[in-house]
Design a protein that fits this description.
- The structure holds two protein chains of two kinds.
- Chain A is an all-alpha fold.
- Chain A contains twelve helices and no strands.
- The radius of gyration of chain A is 23 Å and the shape is globular.
- Chain A has two domains: 47 residues, no CATH class; 209 residues, MetI-like fold, CATH 1.10.3720.
- Chain B has 13 helices and no strands.
- Classes of the chains: A mainly alpha, B mainly alpha.
- The interface between A and B is large, with 76 and 90 residues.
Chain lengths: 267, 293
């Protein structure tokens, strides 16, 4: 099957790049050339007006970025706590109604989040959870935990029972097995699930707007009015930050993971 | 406590971190949406009958127009994403090892939030956008007005483009996860036995990818059907997506119309659940009719 002509592969890569990478490249240009108008195919002149705006408003941008970052991390942590023991049970045990239950717990990621979030909104207001970061994290976790759950179930299944039984035979207690054997082996699954949850939380606009009510700063909330405005240059720069930050985060994570594996001699 | 009773208790305890939020927040949230649609627990005391809100909505032709429009946008974007992703993922999988790394660019729209993808569509497809400039440079159009009005055609093309751009990499991710475990020898055998390339694709590869295709279709379809972010940026005036309709009723009208917003949400929820059930039933029935290799 690998007989296709090299030129065909290169042509395909060009297609892939123009579909998925070109938009990012164009955003860089739009960001650097605020005056870029129809019908110029290439901007007439570049300016740093967008960057300057970025610098003058750095405090607000930094606050909204940090806030988005923190509530997304908190969401990852909450979903992890929610899913760890249930995923172990689902991966290892048989019990009546398991398939139905599995289908049920995955529904929050499928049905439109508005349908339960707006019903909850009133209760969150009564419990003073609305307009707080805790409320935002709760609603984001409720909507995104199925991704963590699926990843952890798969992680427990690949791990198998062998390590657990072996450690048990060597005299380790349940807690020691969990902390020293299973948790380290689950890290890749946690990262896989955690990255999806992080991205979902980090890029969500509506749920944060609904539950945060403007009190919880968010990068999407900061970006939204700019996207609709005529200042496309600024919107493009902020969108690029959106792109770069998670990529940096994933590289950092990957690097840390590799380093710790190497230290332990696992690879 | 008996031995089995003890085991059940431990199992319940293990499941509780997930089941409690699921029951209290998710089921509770849906329950409250349904209640408010009936006029119970609304911020303002509801004076009418239980199904008044539904009567108002179901007698409004614009509701059906919105529902049909949302359905169409969701169907077109989900089907488009899955079809494009199948082709692209298959070709990515066939790439030689040296080039496979470069193919990772497909993940870029996965990272961008929906609102940013909508912005990208705006930059490319608006009448003063990049593609209009390109068409002008190629001599296809003389002025902005000659460029097709893609974003405000009344067919939701802008939203479909945005959802497809965002959904294709997602479906590719799921499809590639299946493809890496795929045994190349099956294809080689078929090729040796004289199967043509299209036949190999449709008879051998596609059936193996089916689970990923179905999963991604359901997820993408329901997401586009009910999400808010992209329509908020790319919507046209009429007919609007259902989610925008709900948003208007919830935030821009007085509290007395809250039950109407909730009634639409209840109908959307019911539709989503029915769709999941009907879709998975159909898939199971179809697959039972197919001979397994």
């Amino acid at each position: 099957m690998k007989r296709s002509h090299p030129a065909a592969h290169i042509l395909f890569l060009v297609l892939l790049f123009s579909l998925f990478a070109l938009p990012a490249g164009i955003l860089v240009l739009v960001g650097l050339a605020p005056g870029w108008r129809f019908p110029d195919l290439w901007p007439e002149r570049f300016s740093f007006a967008g960057i300057e705006f970025l610098i003058t408003h750095r405090d607000r941008i930094a606050v909204s970025l940090a806030s988005s970052f923190l509530y997304s991390l908190a969401t990852v942590f909450v979903t992890l706590c929610m899913c760890l023991t249930p995923a172990a049970a689902f991966a290892r045990q048989r019990f009546p109604g398991k398939r139905l239950l599995e289908a049920l717990v995955l529904t929050p990621a499928l049905v439109p989040p508005m349908t339960f979030a707006m019903g909850l909104h009133m209760v969150f207001i009564k419990l003073s959870l609305a307009d707080t970061a805790a409320g935002v994290v709760l609603i984001l976790a409720l909507f995104s935990y199925p991704y963590m759950f699926r990843a952890l179930v798969a992680g427990f299944q690949t791990m198998g029972q062998g390590y657990r039984v072996c450690a048990g035979n060597l005299g380790a207690g349940n807690i020691a097995i969990f902390r020293q054997v299973e948790l380290p082996l689950l890290v890749p699954a946690m990262i896989a699930g955690g990255s999806v949850v992080f991205l979902v939380a980090f890029s969500e606009y509506f749920l944060v707007f609904l539950m945060g009510g403007g009190n919880v700063p968010s990068f999407t909330g900061f970006l939204m009015p700019l996207l609709a405005s005529s200042n496309r240059s600024l919107a493009a720069i902020l969108t690029l930050i959106f792109l770069v930050l998670p990529i940096l985060l994933f590289f950092l994570l990957d690097w840390c993971l590799m380093r710790s594996y190497r230290k332990k001699g696992m690879i | 406590m008996s031995w089995t009773g003890n085991r059940t208790a431990i199992l319940l305890l293990k499941l509780s971190p997930l089941m409690l939020p699921f029951l209290v927040l998710f089921c509770g949230g849906v329950f409250l949406t349904v209640c408010q649609s009936l006029g119970l627990f609304t911020p303002l005391p509801h004076t009418g009958g239980l199904v008044d809100a539904y009567a108002v909505i179901l007698s409004d032709p614009s509701f059906f127009a919105s529902a049909g429009f949302s359905f169409g946008v969701a169907l077109a974007s989900a089907a488009g994403s899955v079809a494009a992703a199948t082709f692209l993922a298959y070709r990515v999988w066939q790439l030689p090892k040296k080039m496979a790394g470069a193919a990772l660019v497909y993940k870029i729209p996965l990272i961008l939030p929906h609102i940013a993808v909508a912005f990208v569509v705006l930059v490319f497809w608006s009448r003063s956008g990049i593609l209009a400039s390109l068409a002008h440079a190629l001599g296809l159009i003389q002025s902005m007005q000659e460029f097709p009005n893609v974003l405000y055609s009344g067919w939701g093309v802008g939203m479909i483009l945005a959802y497809t751009l965002k959904g294709t990499p997602f479906a590719m991710l799921l499809i590639l996860a299946l493809l890496v475990r795929f045994d190349v020898r099956q294809i080689q055998t078929a090729a040796m036995l004289g199967a043509s390339k299209p036949r190999i694709f449709f008879a051998i590869v596609l059936p193996r990818l089916a689970p990923a295709l179905h999963t991604s279709f359901i997820i993408l379809f329901l997401y586009s059907f009910g999400a808010f972010d992209i329509p908020y940026i790319l919507s046209e005036s009429r007919p609007g997506m259902l989610s925008l309709h709900v948003f208007d009723l919830y935030f821009k009208h007085d509290l007395a119309r809250r039950p109407e917003a909730m009634a639409i949400l209840t109908l959307m929820f019911g539709f989503a659940v029915l769709f999941i059930i009907a879709y998975s039933r159909t898939v199971t029935r179809l697959e039972n009719g197919v001979r397994k290799l």
